Structures are given as structure tokens and as C-alpha cells.
């Protein structure tokens, strides 16, 4: 007769006839026959193989055993190194063990080992099932799974990665900020630029460049040698030579500026590049006088002769070139004899500094013949009612007719005009035109006409300026732009204009900051927001002031108001309260509304967020005896943009529920709960 193989818990009944086992199964897959005990599955929950990345990778090994817990002695997990630990039942027939934070080193064969309780006639009955667990390392750097900063390097490691900011940046690798190596307060990885170099910060690095007057790579810099200047000493100095003996010339090595002793002659320059050449005849103008046919050409050169490539030359209109003689330092001369109108044309003086290109000066000779105008008077200014006089000098060996014209009309002696003529020696005659009692139409050019020549002389009628068309526009909350037209400048340079402003047309007008101006527009500043102003303009020249023009009324723009005042709560109930506040002390324009934000103090959850026109706001749907933060912001609107104040905020607390109300709430909440039977169970799945 064979022994029964039923479990020994007393839950099984052995059929003596055939040895079969009958029992009350505690779960559907359960058996009470040890001969049929099996481990159906032993595997990790989730996908396999396991990817080891930077997160905590716990693996739940789950073993399904088809025997009740009361019939088992133990369920263990055996590790690859043959150590073992007990598994935990998570539901009938299901046992689990969590491998915490696994890495590739944890790969290997794991065994679920279940042991059944023995019966008196046999030993311990056990079964095993294995699973070969593979854990692969994830290279977060290669798979772009890291969160390293763009200016950091990612280094893969077992089960994770590390981030390190690259050179030139500082931070934890996830956040990297550029190091300003050039900043004087820099304390780590700072620049190595020379003291005579400029450090320029770049993203992740810096550059060094020697300052002007030095050469080198920026880390080492040497001062320019004599005769050199500029960046990297690339430029040649062009200073004049020093006086014999004293070293009185210095070339500034940063920019090549030359310093020297200029007392040698008037007009001397220290810089060869500043060479100037000026040519004039003496006398000037040149008159075609009988028996007087010589002129002296005078060429002024502003360099010392030791700095010039001599000789200084003069070129005649026919192309002939002649050397000039130095009469004194800076002055070169040549006499030209027998000058006639046939010698008219361009004369050129040429001088060259040592090592430099030649520089020239020109004069266009026009030998005046009998009846040519020598000169006219400079422009003459006069005010309305004044008497002014202009003149015209004519080369004349005999009496010549000299006439005056204004517009197309010849001027004659009368009460308005007086013409006089007189001789100036043997070869010159001068005509004077006197204009009495000036009026606006007398302004202009008066033409002197001689035998073979005409020239104009100016009479400038100077008057007070006239202005018009004052326009005002708002620029900002504290600025207005004012513009005006100068319809008549008084025939003088631009007048000086004064701008004043006032909040009333008849009140005290204040001078605008930055006034007076010579422009035709001005920004009036330091005004009050959303305030109406009058602006007036008056312009002045040396004759007098214009009329005062008053611009129209213009308002400045709105700006941000100050914060709402005296925030308070009223009608505080368990589920609501009403908040109220006062208008800001500085509205800076009509308040366009208020923004109200209510959050629960405990977790910051937004309860209410709204925009209102008034100065109160009901807050409903609250929880009893709970603190709430109320924030109120005032705002103006200008140009479609909200201009918000600083926030005003306070914490308010709802009241407690009354005892009767609290009881009703508990009852209502209890009645709303679903009723659970004693058969209901909830299985919680073990997660990572």
C-alpha cells in the first residue's frame, strides 16, 4: 500500500483507495497534493532585459506557487552567489522579492525555491524554478538621455552618468554659466592677459590683445620701439625731426600723436601728415597797372625746412616749374616779372615732407584790367528803420561809370538811396550806396556794375524771429513733445527758443528742463502722470523776441498706479468671505480695474482668479477654518497694455463650522460613501 501525498495541514483528505487528495482550495490554482506542487512562473515584472539607467531601477521578482501558504514551509529566492532571502506573499499563490537598484553586476541565475510541509511518513518536499536575469547598462550620454548642460561633458557610469561643465564655465553640470575671466572680481580660472593688454570675455573663454602702443600675443606685451605706434606697433610715426640738440619731439605710441616745440615759427606743425601748403600773390588782387608788372608769389608751408624734401617749387599755368627761395622758416617766395592778363591761370606750390607724398596749394590768378571790380564790402546788417551803406571798389586809370542795381532796377539818387563816388589814388575808384529807412523788402543783394565787371554786395535786414504752428503730443507718463515752425528767422542764425509749461493757461509757467534750445522741437520732462498741460514757446535772436505762442491742452499718459490700500475681509463665514480695499494713493490715471487672486495657504492651490471693476470681491466655495492668501493688483490700461501696481496681499481665515452644521456635514458625507461588503478586497500592487 502506497503513502498518500496530500499536504499535511489538515486541509486535505486522502482517498485510501486510490491515494487522491481532496481539499478546500483557497485559490483557483491551489493544490493539496504534494505530487502536483509546481512553480508556474518565476520572472521579473515588466520588460526584460532590465535597462540600467540613471533612475533607481528596482526589479520585482515574482514567483507563482500553486499551494496555500498554510501548506508551505518557505518560499525563498536564491541569488547567483547562492545566498538567499525569504520572499513575501503579495496575494494567494504569489510571492515576490524586490531587487533594489540593480546594475549589470546583478545579472545571473535567480532561483525561486518553495518548500512544502512534510507529512510524518516523508521528508521535506521542495521545488525550484530559475530565471536568468540580464541587466544591461544604458549609456545615457550616447542615447541623449542625460540632462547635462550644452556647455558640459557627459560621462557614462554604471547605472547613471555625470555632468561636468567644460573649461570656461562654472556650475553643477546641469546648469553651467559662463565665467567672465576678465572680471576684476574673478577668483578662479581667470585671465592671464598682460597688464598692458585688454581682456575680452567670450562665451566659454576670453581673448587677450595688447593695447595700442604695444606688440605681442596679449599674454606678453612689449612697448613699441621708437618710430612705431598703434596696435601691434604696425604704424610708422610721422612726427617732425627734433631740433638740433634737444630731443623735443615725442611720438605718442598709442595713437601716433606728435608733440614738439612749436616756437620755431608761427603755424608750425609737429606732424608730417598735417603738412599744409598755401599760395598767395603779393599784391592781391593783381592789377594790370602800367609800369608795375612784378608780383611776389608767397607759399606758406607749416613744416620746418629740415623736415622737407627741398626745394619747394611753383608751377606756372604753362607747366614750367620753378624753385622757390626760403625767406624765413615756413615762407617760400618767387618773384614773377612782367605780369599781364596773359598770365592768368592756376599757379601751384608743391612741398613734400621727408618720406611722405607731396602736398600742393593753388591760386587762380586773375589780373584785373581797367574797369574790373577789385572788391565789394562785406555783408552789412541793419534793422527796420536803420540807414546802412555798402561800397564797391573798381580798378580805373581814368574815370569809369559805376552803377547800382537792386533786382532788375537801376538805383538812382532819391530820398531812399544816395550814391557817391570818389578816387582812391591813381588807379582805384570807390562807389558808396546808402540805403535809408530800411524795410523788409530792402533785404538782399545789390549789384555793383562797372565797365567790364559786376559784383554783388549784401544788405541783411535783421528782425525778430516769427514762429507758428505749435504742436504738442504725449510721449510718456511724464513727457510731452513740443514742436513749432520758425516762419521767419529774421535773416540771422537759428534763434534760441524758450519752452515753458503750466497746468493752467493763466497760471505760473515753469521753464522746461533743457530749455532754451536752438532746435524746433523739445521734450518737456518731469511732468505728472495723466495731467493736462499748456505749453508755450517764444524764440529770441539778437534783435529781440518773437511773439509767444500757446499750444493746445495736452495730457500725459497713464502709468502704473500704486498698490491698493487697506485690504480687508468682511462677512467671514465657514465657506466664504468678502474682500474689500481702497483705491491706490496714486492712481496715475483712472483705474481700469483690479485683479484678484485667492490661493489656499496650505498648498498654494488657486481658488479664485478674477478681474473686477469695483473695490470688493466675494470669495465663495471655501473650506471652513482654513487660511487663504488674497492678492489684489490695481491696473491702468494705456495703448492696449496693462500697467499693473505692486500687489497688496493679506491672509484671511474662514470661520469654524457650528457643531450642528458639522454634524450634518459628517452625516451627509457618510451617507455618500459606497457601502463595502465583507467580501470586498483590494490588492495593492507593489511598485518601484
UniProtKB/TrEMBL annotation:
- Locate the Ig-like domain: which residues? 371-459
Query: A Gene Ontology molecular-function term?
Result: calcium ion binding
Where in the numbering of this chain does the Fibronectin type-III domain appear?
A: 466-562, 563-658
Name this protein carries in UniProt: Protein sidekick homolog isoform X1
Q: Where is the EGF-like domain?
A: 137-177, 191-222
UniProt KW keywords: Disulfide bond, EGF-like domain, Repeat, Signal
Which gene underlies this protein? LOC110982771
Pfam families in the record, alphabetically?
Answer: EGF_3 (PF12947), fn3 (PF00041), I-set (PF07679)
Bilayer-crossing residues are: none
Superkingdom of origin: Eukaryota
Tell me the lineage of the source organism: Eukaryota, Metazoa, Echinodermata, Eleutherozoa, Asterozoa
**PROSITE patterns found in the cross-reference section:** ASX_HYDROXYL (PS00010), EGF_2 (PS01186), EGF_3 (PS50026), EGF_CA (PS01187), FN3 (PS50853), IG_LIKE (PS50835)
From what organism does this protein derive?
A: Acanthaster planci (Crown-of-thorns starfish)
Entry annotated with the keyword Transmembrane helix: no
- For whether the record's keyword set contains Phosphoprotein, the answer is no
Amino acid at each position: 500500500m502506497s503513502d498518500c501525498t496530500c499536504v499535511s495541514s489538515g486541509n486535505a483528505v486522502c482517498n485510501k483507495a486510490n491515494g487522491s487528495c481532496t481539499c478546500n482550495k483557497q485559490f483557483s490554482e491551489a493544490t493539496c497534493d504534494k505530487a502536483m506542487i509546481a512553480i508556474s512562473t518565476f520572472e521579473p515584472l515588466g520588460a526584460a532585459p532590465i535597462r540600467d539607467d540613471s533612475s533607481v531601477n528596482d526589479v520585482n521578482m515574482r514567483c507563482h506557487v500553486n499551494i496555500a501558504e498554510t501548506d508551505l514551509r518557505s518560499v525563498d529566492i536564491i541569488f547567483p552567489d547562492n545566498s538567499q532571502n525569504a520572499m513575501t506573499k503579495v496575494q494567494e499563490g504569489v510571492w515576490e522579492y524586490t531587487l533594489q537598484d540593480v546594475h549589470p553586476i546583478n545579472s545571473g541565475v535567480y532561483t525561486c525555491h518553495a518548500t512544502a510541509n512534510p507529512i510524518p511518513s516523508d521528508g521535506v518536499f521542495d521545488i525550484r524554478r530559475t530565471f536568468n536575469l540580464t541587466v544591461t547598462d544604458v549609456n545615457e550620454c550616447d542615447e541623449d538621455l542625460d540632462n547635462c548642460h550644452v556647455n558640459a561633458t557627459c560621462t557614462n557610469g554604471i547605472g547613471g552618468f555625470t555632468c561636468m561643465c567644460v573649461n570656461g564655465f562654472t556650475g553643477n553640470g546641469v546648469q553651467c554659466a559662463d565665467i567672465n575671466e576678465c572680471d576684476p572680481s574673478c577668483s578662479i580660472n581667470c585671465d592671464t592677459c598682460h597688464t598692458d593688454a585688454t581682456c575680452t570675455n567670450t562665451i566659454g573663454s576670453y581673448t587677450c590683445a595688447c593695447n595700442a602702443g604695444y606688440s605681442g600675443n596679449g599674454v606678453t606685451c612689449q612697448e613699441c620701439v621708437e618710430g612705431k605706434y598703434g596696435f601691434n606697433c604696425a604704424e610708422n610715426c610721422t612726427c617732425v625731426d627734433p631740433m638740433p640738440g634737444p630731443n623735443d619731439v615725442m611720438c605718442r605710441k598709442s595713437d601716433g600723436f606728435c608733440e614738439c616745440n612749436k616756437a620755431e615759427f608761427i603755424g608750425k606743425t609737429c606732424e608730417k601728415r598735417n603738412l599744409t601748403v598755401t599760395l598767395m600773390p603779393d599784391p592781391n588782387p593783381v592789377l594790370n597797372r602800367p609800369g608795375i608788372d612784378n608780383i611776389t608769389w608767397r607759399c606758406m608751408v607749416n613744416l620746418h625746412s629740415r623736415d622737407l624734401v627741398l626745394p619747394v617749387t611753383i608751377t606756372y599755368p604753362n607747366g614750367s616749374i620753378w624753385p622757390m627761395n626760403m625767406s624765413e622758416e615756413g615762407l617760400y617766395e618767387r618773384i614773377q616779372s612782367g605780369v599781364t592778363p596773359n598770365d592768368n591761370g592756376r599757379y601751384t606750390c608743391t612741398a613734400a615732407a621727408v618720406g611722405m607724398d607731396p602736398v600742393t596749394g593753388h591760386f587762380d590768378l586773375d589780373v584785373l584790367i581797367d574797369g574790373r571790380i577789385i572788391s565789394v564790402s562785406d555783408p552789412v546788417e541793419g534793422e527796420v528803420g536803420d540807414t546802412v551803406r555798402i561800397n564797391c571798389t573798381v580798378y580805373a586809370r581814368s574815370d569809369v561809370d559805376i552803377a547800382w542795381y537792386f533786382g532788375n532796377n537801376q538805383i538812382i539818387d532819391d530820398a531812399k538811396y544816395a550814391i557817391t563816388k570818389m578816387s582812391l589814388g591813381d588807379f582805384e575808384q570807390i562807389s558808396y550806396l546808402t540805403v535809408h529807412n530800411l524795410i523788409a523788402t530792402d533785404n538782399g543783394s545789390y549789384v555793383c556794375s562797372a565797365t567790364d565787371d559786376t559784383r554783388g554786395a549784401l544788405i541783411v535786414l535783421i528782425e525778430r524771429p516769427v514762429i507758428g504752428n505749435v504742436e504738442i503730443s504725449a510721449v510718456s507718463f511724464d513727457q510731452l513733445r513740443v514742436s513749432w515752425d520758425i516762419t521767419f528767422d529774421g535773416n540771422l542764425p537759428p534763434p534760441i527758443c524758450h519752452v515753458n509749461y503750466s497746468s493752467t493757461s493763466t497760471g505760473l509757467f515753469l521753464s522746461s528742463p533743457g530749455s532754451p534750445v536752438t532746435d524746433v522741437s523739445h521734450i518737456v520732462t518731469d511732468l505728472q502722470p495723466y495731467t493736462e498741460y499748456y505749453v508755450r514757446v517764444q524764440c529770441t535772436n539778437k534783435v529781440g523776441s518773437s511773439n509767444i505762442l500757446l499750444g493746445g491742452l495736452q495730457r500725459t499718459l497713464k502709468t502704473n498706479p500704486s498698490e491698493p490700500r487697506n485690504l480687508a475681509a468682511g462677512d467671514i463665514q465657514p465657506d466664504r468671505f468678502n474682500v474689500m480695499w481702497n483705491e491706490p494713493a496714486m492712481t496715475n490715471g483712472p483705474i481700469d480695474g483690479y485683479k484678484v487672486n485667492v490661493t489656499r495657504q496650505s498648498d498654494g492651490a488657486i481658488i479664485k482668479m478674477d478681474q473686477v471693476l469695483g473695490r470688493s470681491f466675494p470669495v465663495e466655495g471655501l473650506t471652513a477654518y482654513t487660511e487663504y492668501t488674497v492678492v489684489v493688483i490695481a491696473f491702468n490700461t494705456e495703448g492696449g497694455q496693462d500697467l499693473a501696481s505692486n500687489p497688496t496681499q493679506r491672509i484671511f481665515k474662514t470661520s469654524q463650522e457650528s457643531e450642528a452644521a458639522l454634524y450634518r456635514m459628517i452625516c451627509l458625507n457618510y451617507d455618500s460613501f459606497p457601502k463595502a461588503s465583507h467580501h470586498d478586497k483590494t490588492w495593492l500592487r507593489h511598485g518601484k
